[in-house]
Each structure stands twice: as structure tokens, then as C-alpha cells.
Please model this.
Amino acid sequence: MPTPPPTGPLVTRDTLAQQLRDLGVKPGETLLAHTSLSSLGWVNGGAAAVVQGLLDALGPDGTLVVPTQTGDLSDPAVWQNPPVPQEWWAQIRATMPPYDPLITPSRGVGVIPETVRNWPGARRSAHPQTSFAAIGARAAEITDGHAPDCRLGERSPLARLEKLHARVLMLGTGYATCTCFHLAEYRIPSPRVQVGRPAPGGWETVTEISITSDRFDELGYDFERDRPVVVRGRVGAAETRLFPVAGAVAYAERWLAVHRPREEEI
Model:
């Protein structure tokens, strides 16, 4: 059976950069990008062309930031998709390679963040499960000092992005992927959890804020309805949103406390 022709539109580095400018992306700004390559259409050059287009729109003084999470570096006892036999757990913990920001691949965030991670001059933060990678003028400022016991809180790149007046670009993704909402979870009563992971000295367990993206889609819908700061448009075939990190976090603090309260436990 013949392969069907690709569905459009045809997207190039240049058309992507121009559509980002038309959306409102400004040279010199800092963007936290959540991306879906497949949502764009047929991209000539694939993920590399998307990264080039983003960097073209931001210019030499701008900074591109993406999540490069590694949720697989975790306790096999909590794995669900798929689970592994309990009799494997001890050996998995004993032999799991620890996080290395230079070589550990991202997982579950798509091919564009993985392309950014491998980009010449990219910087990556040190958290073994919720790292971010960045390219550009403020890459080191954003990624350095990511505390190992602070996944997405005050000592993570998210708090730095907030202070730098960065914006979120959602390129074909929904609010369920909006990592900056997690910063709000650190500012309201939230449960603590024990998080296991590999470390250079062996398996370790740290106490962390419990994070979950449960109901983030609803949160995002209400944020967009109530705050006239969300710019909507299309890049290629992708529905795209652009909004300030600080405004989203402030709204999420209030919304989560009311609509998704969680008991604080120590």
C-alpha cells in the first residue's frame, strides 16, 4: 500500500521564525518553550529547524529554555507505565546510572527539547529528575544552581525565569505540560514525599514537595479566560500560546489553593 503524502502545512525555519514574530516573540527575550513537533505540520529540517527558527526569532541576545526531564531516574516501586516486577527493584536501584547533564537523555518531553539539550553551547541544570536546558545569553544564569532537593521550586530555573520576566511559549501543547504552574505548588500548602533516585554515591532518598499536573488543563482554561495576557495564534498548524511566567504562577497560586487544595504533611 503506498505511503500517503504528508499533511501540511509546509513549515520552514524562516516561516516559523516569522510566525513567531507575528505572534509577538521579541528579540532579546527569554522563552520557556513547551513544544510538539508533530503539531506543526511538515517541518523541513525537523526538530533542528524548529530550534533554529526559535533562536532566529529571539536573536543573539535572547534565551531559549526547555524542560529536559528524566523521570525514569526514579524508584521502580512507583513505575506504572509499565510497572516492573517487584523482584527486580533492588537490582534496578543498585545498577541505575546516575544523572549526568552531558549525556543523560531527556524523556517524555519530545524531540525538540532533546535537540536543544544537544545544541552547541547549551547549558543544562543539575537536578537529576527535572532539569532544564537553555541556549542563549542568559542560559548559565537560568540553569546554574538548580538545587538537588528542589525539583520545580524557588531554587530551580522556574523561579529565575519568573524574576527575569520570561514568557511561556506553548507550541502545539496544552496546559497540562505547563511546568511553571508547579512553582505555585511550592508556595501553597502541599504534601511532602520521599523521592528515590540514583546518585554518584549510590541510591539516595530526598524529601520533596509533591508535584502533580492534575487539573492543570482546567487551571489553564480559567487563567486564559480571566487574564487578558495570553496571546493566541498559530505557528504552522500548531495552536500556540504566549504568556508571562509571573502572571501564570500568581494566578495558579490562588487557583490551586481554592480548586485543588492538598493537605500539607511533613
Remarks:
- The chain has a mean pLDDT of 95.
